[in-house]
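Entry 14: structure prediction run for Large ribosomal subunit protein bL21. Input pasted below.
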Amino acid sequence: MFAVIKTKGYQYLVKKGEKITIPAFIGDPGTKVEFDEVMMVKDNNDTKVGSPYIKGAKVRGIVKQCGRLPKITVFKFRRREKYRRKKGHRQHFTEVEITDIIKK
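Run finished. Output tokens:
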């Protein structure tokens, strides 16, 4: 059984017991989260597709880890104009372990 969920502007294909990394802060480690924007659920021969979401379907998980991803460098320049800009950025992330997929 797997499901396609939408959270924080991204779509994820999830299975029970799988860990996903979401590039946003959702909650502290140990808290339970529930995703209700389920776009598709597939179970053996039964497939449900929402338009855009399936009513009553939920995916539950537990926050395992929070932190910040490695730093990326953003560098802009225009040649022959002495224009240079250098910035760094570290994105927050949350690692969630999927515990249950509920379909209605």
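Notes: The two ends are 14 Å apart (CA to CA). Will compare against the previous run tomorrow.
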